[in-house]
Amino acid sequence: MTTKQPVYSELRKAGAFIFVGVAQFAVLLIVAEALFPNYSVSNNYISDLGAICHRPPAPLNGCVFVQPTSSVFNGSIIFLGVFLIIATYFLLRSKVSMVVPVFTLLSAIGCIGVGTFTEATGTPHGIFSLLTFVSIGLLALVSYGVQKSPLKYFSIVAGVATLASLVLFMTGVYLGLGIGGMERMIVYPVMVWSLAFSGHLMALEEAKATPKSA
């Protein structure tokens, strides 16, 4: 008799959830920036969109939540995290290397943490932001074996670019881009790669029927 082994069907589902999660975040990030009065991609942190602290228009010793920007940004990144958790579930059901769902899950936890613990919380927000940046950068690297040429090489470039930008950002080297510009150099390479990676997963063909003796 013949049985089917849909090895890649779970990867397709994972790709779909990654795509929706990342795509909506990319679009709503632009929306949030547009809704924030006098927002600067060079001088404002990305997380200022969730709660801005110790920079205008925030008071000297406090934070403000600019609406509807704060709700849009925080809701969007939490939504991204939830969809990455669902993608993790399908990745675990597939036959990919365990490190891929592990770093996907860590990225998800980081995203949810960033949206839940805004800049107003101080240290917790910093921890979740760092977790997100490191996890997604490493995810791009460890996903090398899941992808085909030339995407797997772009994956390495994106991961290295994100982690290198993170090191520069943390050491105060902004290359003339400003705080916000340098932070975007951490986020954008892996954001673009994530969309390509999700499309790659969705395009994978299911394994052909494998003959098996009755």
From TrEMBL:
It comes from the Archaea. InterPro entries: DUF998. Keywords: Membrane, Transmembrane, Transmembrane helix. The chain crosses the membrane at residues 14-36, 72-92, 99-120, 126-146, 153-179, 185-204. This is DUF998 domain-containing protein. It comes from Candidatus Marsarchaeota G1 archaeon BE_D. The lineage of its organism: Archaea, Candidatus Marsarchaeota, Candidatus Marsarchaeota group 1.
